[in-house]
Amino acid sequence: MSAENSTQKSHESRQAVRQRAISEAVMTAGSVRIEQLAERFDISLMTVHRDLDELESRGLLRKSRGVATALSSSLVESSDVFRAGQQHAAKLEVAQAALEFIEPGQAVFLDDSTTVLQLARLLHERAPLTVITNCLTIINELNNTRGISLVALGGFYHNWCSSFMGQMTTTAIEQLRADVFVMSTAAITDDRCFHQSQETVSTKHAMFDVSAARILLADHTKFEKRALYGLVDLTEFDHVIVDSRTRDEDVVRLRGKGVHVTVATPSATPHR
Questions:
Q1: How many Å apart are CA 1 and CA 5, to the nearest integer?
Q2: Most buried of the four, 32, 39, 178, 221, by CB within 10 Å?
Q3: Number of helices (H) and strands (E), helices first, in the chain?
Q4: Do residues 196 and 77 make contact, with C-beta atoms less than 8 angstroms apart?
Q5: What average pLDDT does the structure give for the chain?
Q6: How much is the pLDDT for 11?
Q7: Nearest 10 degrees: CA dihedral of 82, 114, 234, 209?
Q8: pLDDT number for residue 115
Q9: How far is Cα 144 from Cα 160, in angstroms, rounded to an integer?
Q10: Is the pLDDT of residue 5 over 60?
Q11: How far apart are the first and last CA of the chain?
């Protein structure tokens, strides 16, 4: 190996380590001013902007008005890498409660949410099952699970959510029929599911339409968030499962509308 090639590989290695550190710093804090990142990592503003551009292109975070952020907004969802570390206990609660609604022998659609990922990790307890998903993370999670027949939906791949979406995906979904669709949502406003991406709405709507039963998993923070594109009202679901920290007023209001709400109970140990 030439000295020039060795130097280039060393530079690329340092850059990768720095970018990993920057992404971890932003995800830990939620958002950090770009000037603070330059100072913290002792690099120029030009360099930190290049690193952030690379991380943004990979769907890990985004730049907005001098700030690097991993947080979602009404227009942009945060990356699945960031979301996976948020509200973990609550997600596990609702996933364990949802498992009670899954029966061996069923065909089950799973969306690309990090909440449903927690359910996917428990599905071996209900095998045999056929699982249909557009989520690469879930595909990788289940591809060697005994008793799980996996149907992977292709399409245009989106880094920020590790999933396939688009016309190819929805066309494939329309050719299928499932017993159950399990999904989560970015936000609940006026007792309706909302998402930041129209493609996300189209993909989940297609799964919703071809499933006999629909189950929504939502932790308490979903009732505090907003997003742009509406999907369906919560009254359209057969079951809505929320975590134990969900406000009583939200549960009472939904039940008053006829929504079948299950409040999950805290669990000290996972089923894994």
A1: 6
A2: 178
A3: 10, 15
A4: yes
A5: 87
A6: 57
A7: 130
A8: 94
A9: 24
A10: no
A11: 46
pTM for this entry = 0.75
Pairing of strands 229-233, 211-218: unpaired
The 10 Å Cβ neighbour count of residue 116 is 26
CA distance 182 to 198: 19
Residue 118, helix vs strand vs coil: helix
Q: Which three-class secondary structure state does DSSP give residue 220?
A: helix
162 CB-near residues (< 8 Å, 6+ apart)? 80, 112, 135, 136, 137
Q: Which two tokens stand for residue 31?
A: 């958002």
How many angstroms separate the most distant Cα atoms in the chain? 73
CA–CA separation, 267 and 122 (whole Å): 14
83: its two tokens? 């979301």
How do beta strands 107-110 and 178-183 pair? parallel
For the sheet with 187-189, list strands across it: 187-189, 192-195, 229-233
- pLDDT given for residue 272 in this prediction: 39
In sequence order, what E strands does the chain have? 31-33, 62-64, 67-69, 107-110, 129-133, 148-152, 156-158, 163-165, 178-183, 187-189, 192-195, 211-218, 229-233, 239-242, 261-263
